[in-house]
């Protein structure tokens, strides 16, 4: 249970609602009392107060002392958003997570991470006054950007914020201007010799790594350059008439601290006479500035190897992914990694500011990040767990969206898992006529509909057509035009709910039967040699008991069946009147069929004894089976035929280890495609050899049959050719390379248990409806579409998501709201037919800056990754990378031209919501799914592509940027987990232990100098040489530290789709090369660029377009 901050919990008691006309009065009272929780704020921000005549934000008075400077130690107050409701106070049972005593006024400071430019009806935003504080003391260490946002900032001179790299100067000698920052005033101050400097737009962050750009120096009219450490301190001021909030430009000396982070980020480029790439192994010897200049540069240069690992040699420039660099150039000083925007800082800030309750009743607000723990309060729009959009404020003009190059898409997870403290979407009242829908567009009734004429009809929010309300659904309207039963019907007050479906929504107009599970096990020499068959038979009884004891669903009518196969098929009759199972062998695999109808699919309760008997006999029957030729196509065909005969949907759980090489339908010859990876012909190796399994998958979708493949290969099995069985049916693939039951057995059994016990929707159809002006154009994910509108999935669970891209049909009117409805028709595991509906409203604006302010980066990356996977089979690798980079450059260039106000050409300016876009794009380009490593097999590459294509936003966020946890900092007595560290080798210490996981892989890296006491408490040994690296789990020791770490690993595993194998390694092991591939901020083993190199490359490309 999440414990929200006290400022987020509504006060107890039943207090009356505030009236909307009291908003301005209360706003002024709170402004005078300085109410609102204390929270860190950027230094140098202007003060704002609420004007008594309107709800606009107006500048407050300037500070009294114009010589004051902001300090990163200053703690200020952030805006307190007060929401006033004009609805009458009512008691209604369908508002999720509504705490007792909810009142009309709440402090929802976590609901507006990026406040919209316009004030929404019923909401007043006020800010408490803030005065900048003087910064004390000089600074000799390079500041970590996390400090600028820290609620309890530490001293800048603390070694915790040092990058550990000498800058080539005597740090004990402080320059006269060390630690001074540029102060930003809401009003210009008179009698200053420095001219006004233009800065960035609100919501952008600027940084200069290296020194100030020469263009900036020419604008400052100073007697001496700031790079010479002489002359008066430079101050920058902004215009009071500007309609945007300005932020100062900072210069960073080689021996001077970096000022705190500002909203937006800037990076310098390289002067024409300065060599590139930067030298990563030598300290700076002289201050340098970066300027794009006229230099011609046609590719990303390779990074230099880290000094800790001299064996890591750079790749030849001719083979560099983004082109060759000039080797004759010398290396300028290294750029400090701590000056770059980083994921750890951004995620931690969001957790600090937005944990707690999140209400969905405000259009245009960005939700908390997927890595933040929050509780959703459904107030008419669905929560972000079900639908996330790339943008939450759209431009009215489609040309503006095209100009920005930002995609407009949503990622839908209809069955997403909810958090503790939240409720599942409630079921609406059953109607014999079915759910109430619009007579034209067939949209389901929702909270966006407008009832009129006393409640006799309603106007559809999607197509604007008026539909008459049936007599059994009629209800009078109150004085505000709302139905009096609004809060007693989930579909009228919530954003997510379910309708019971009638026969018209079922196949053949008949209510469905409960689904069935068919277990299909390969019995061959390979599966007995690796121990799969004995392990499966010994543990299936316990797994089926977990399914039978499901407390949430009644599984008494759920049926199971069993098939074993090698080069022939074996069926088992489990009819309840038999004393032992009967086996039937089908050798004609070219015309496969199910030889028995009665007794093949049985319920768990009536055949429990027979199933136990069968599991005891299977290992004895086939232990000496010499078969090496294996079939697969006929196995799927008979499973499909069995579900058709039973008139039900279901799953085929296939346990397979060998490429289908027997003379039967679906035979796949071995092909050599490993050498094609990374070339223009790789699409041949990543595409299926034929369309047999694709057509078979389409037949499965038509019957509601999903296929889950558990692969145990010890050689090539051609995952690319058999994966359509999972991709088109909505199934899942599990891959255990070189499986050994004593090593990987626990992981396999955990995956199997999760598969059959996870809540699943069978025989599902998803349709996306939108309001007039936009329409869906492209769909991405693992599904099948027989027409242009319906997304068909034989099975769907909480881990799978579909991404939908939209396009404009016409220009949208001003102040128009865009509505999106996702409706999922499915069958539950108990055989009920339901319709789950999710509704979302997106605001619009005429300003491009509003769109950049309301971007959701994690969803954008999810879209880019899935779009790239779809294009991977049509484009060469280099062309695909260039397309992604060019679009990234276009996004940032558009912001630089049209939204940023800084006139300094040598700055890279990023919007605050997209400041991690370069980092994430580089991670996508380096990922296994899109690029793969030089040692990655063809099957592993195909598996990674299939896995990413079905991921939701939360899964892709951790997949592309893994979590890195310093386990040596764990306090056994503390409830919290240590803060994550950045995925860079520079952040690893010899005396540390780190856990890295990305949802598929998990590594435990142990430094050579780790404390012997730590090893004794966790591994039971006192030396790294004695650590058993063959184990895939930690030993269960009775020590507080061991229990704490094992609990952390268990908590991580519970939230992932696949149960991850723990790989233990010690610093210097051969496996460390694999581990370093997941340190995504560093240069890859294959020569892929580091984060800093890629950022410089983007800066150069953007500068060419300015």
TrEMBL record:
The lineage of its organism: Eukaryota, Metazoa, Ecdysozoa, Arthropoda, Chelicerata. InterPro entries: ADF-H/Gelsolin-like_dom_sf, Beta-sandwich_Sec23_24, Gelsolin-like_dom, Gelsolin-like_dom_sf, Sec23/24_helical_dom, Sec23/24_helical_dom_sf, Sec23/24_trunk_dom, SEC23_SEC24_subfamily. Residues 857-956 form the Sec23/Sec24 helical domain. Residues 435-473 form the Zinc finger Sec23/Sec24-type domain. Residues 977-1048 form the Gelsolin-like domain. Coiled coil: none annotated. It comes from the Eukaryota. Residues 269-286 have a biased composition (Pro residues). One of its GO terms (cellular component) is COPII vesicle coat. It is found in: Cytoplasmic vesicle, COPII-coated vesicle membrane; Endoplasmic reticulum membrane. Transmembrane segments: none annotated. This is Protein transport protein Sec24C. Residues 512-756 form the Sec23/Sec24 trunk domain. It comes from Stegodyphus mimosarum. GO terms for biological process: COPII-coated vesicle cargo loading; intracellular protein transport. Keywords: Cytoplasmic vesicle, Protein transport, Transport. GO terms for molecular function: SNARE binding; zinc ion binding. Residues 16-57, 65-80, 119-166, 193-203, 238-259, 309-332 have a biased composition (Polar residues). It is a peripheral membrane protein. Belongs to the SEC23/SEC24 family. SEC24 subfamily. Residues 761-844 form the Sec23/Sec24 beta-sandwich domain.
